[in-house]
Amino acid sequence: MSEAELLRVDHLAISFGALQAVSDLSFSARQGHITSVIGPNGAGKSTLFNLVSGALKPQRGRVSFAGADVTGWPTHRLLEAGLSRSFQITNLFFELSVFENLRLAAQVLEPAGRALLPAARSTVARDRAEELLEDFGLSAKATGLAGHRSHGEQRRLEIAMALACRPKLLLLDEPTQGMSHGDTQDTALMIKGLAGALTILLIEHDIGVVMNLSDHVVVMHQGAKLAEGAPKDVRDNAAVQKAYLGGVH
Amino acid sequence: MAELAVLRTAVEAGERTVIGGQHLLAGSFVALALVFAAIAGATGDTFFFRLATEALIFAGLALSVDLLLGYTGLLSLGQALFFGFGAYVSGLVLKHVAPSFWAAVGITLAATLVVGLVAGIIAIRARGVYFALITFGLAQVAFKVVFNSRGIGGSDGIIGIPQIKVEFGLFAVDAQSPAGFFLVTLAFMMLLYGTCAYLMHTPFGRMLMAIRTNESRVPFLGFSPWRAKLAAFVIAAVVAALSGSLYPMLRGLVSPELLAFQTSGNAVIMVVIGGVGTLVGALYGSVVLTVLKSVIGTFTEHHLIIIGGLFMLSVIFFPKGLAGYARPRLERWLARRTERA
């Protein structure tokens, strides 16, 4: 694993019954870069995210993160190590306030001993939550329930929560899903701004966004890697055009 | 930046109002209890003092159910397991080891930490209705074992538990004194309530609420929901057992019925009547149910039919329970008062 690689997956595989959801998949995500995973529905992109983030254990293969073999680590341990993710289907604490959602997500930054002190003493988490509220334009409605916010605001909160723990690697699962055109552009800009300090692994359906944002693109098809390379190379790849872009053009 | 300062003030004020509302309801409970004690003490009553003390003891059991149901989202249908366990351990200690309040409470605490941990590891594996069924099953097994164990009195339970004095260093309270033991129990239960209420306002408590709301998201916050749930389960077991440990001091006996499903079920009813997820509601709910059972029980032996009917009515008209109904109104009043000040 070279120094510039923050995440590396080698020969990763999992099947659900007869369905080979991910098979013999290898790629790496370079430090500070945006690596995108694209592919048609059912290509295994979300399963890949579940494997990398510890929600599923691979049947074969290896996941390395920041120089350590993290295959099969539980999710909470991976998060402590600096690997965070957002969800394709908005996954918040809908019955809690927007502020509380962010404070919970930032709680991991606090020393463990503060878990049994009054919540107001967790000032690191509070400050981080406030910072994110401001960055993501959510301050005005912070005391209201997360479940009462608009879809666009919930999508923003989803990303803010994944960022709250100051991760090294951020897995974004279709961050612009269901967003209006304007919101999609704003979100793309925001993601672009995050890269550099942060390494990003992105699943995205909006090909325009992918081509603009990515440093590296991995194309998945039926659980396996079809191609990878710079956005331009991938776009020009005949196999990719046939399997994926073919329907569009 | 000004916006942030406004936000922080709003968040902090909101939290203060919630805590203020809780304190007000808990303070009213203590005030009402003291008024009752003054009146009952003045009239030289024993029956109602004993009944009220029993209501307080069961309030601790209800509190433990609310800790699991209202904050962690786990419906325990076998919480009487720990209540009865505490009562039996306390009874055995008082009878065979030392007739001391502190020994009984201390040994109950230590023993429940172990039993709660073991039962928790078994029960926490399951979610939703399966958790309810496992807790139900565990309590039924314990009930049958106790019911059939001659060594601890079998179906008769343990009788002849010595009367004790509760030593506080400078003074002692005779557990046989109706007023004295009522006040000791009140202080004890408010201590349990205060500890639980405190914990729910810590990051640990918030994490439990996060689990109740959306458990599958919690690992992605960097915390193991399993560990937090196990901790909540053990704390609830301890609260139930410590409450149970006072029972033999009040009645001088323990019986297998303390572990029976009826006891667990009543605790759930108390929480629902008082208000799920309020903690303080458990205290009110226990008083309401214990008084209703006793009062209606003097008119008819079919009092459960009437209580069942009242329970259904309360679920329909007060779905959030007494405290759940009162609390938002109190909070609004507190917020208005803060604004004016």
The number of helical elements of chain B comes to: 12
Q: Uncertain regions of chain A: pLDDT < 50 for 5+ in a row?
A: none
Distance between the termini of chain B: 25 Å
In N-to-C order, the SSE pattern of chain A is EEEHEEHEHHHEHEHEEHH
Largest sheet of chain B: 2 strands, antiparallel
The number of helical segments of chain A is 9
What does this structure look like?
The complex is a heterodimer of chains A (249) and B (341). With 249 residues, chain A is α/β, with parallel strands linked by helices. Helix content of chain A is 33%, strand content 25%. Chain A starts with a strand and ends in a 6-residue tail after the last helix. Chain A is built from nine helices and ten strands. The longest helix of chain A has 14 residues, at 181-194. Chain B is built from twelve helices and two strands; from the N terminus they run H-H-H-H-H-E-E-H-H-H-H-H-H-H. Chain B has helices at 2-42, 47-72, 80-97, 101-123, 128-147, 178-200, 203-214, 225-251, 261-274, 280-299, 303-317, 321-340, and strands at residues 165-167, 172-174. Chain B starts with a helix and ends with a helix. Chain B is an all-alpha fold. In chain B, a hairpin with a 4-residue loop joins strand 1 (165-167) and strand 2. The longest helix of chain B has 41 residues, at 2-42. The interface between A and B is large, with 44 and 31 residues.
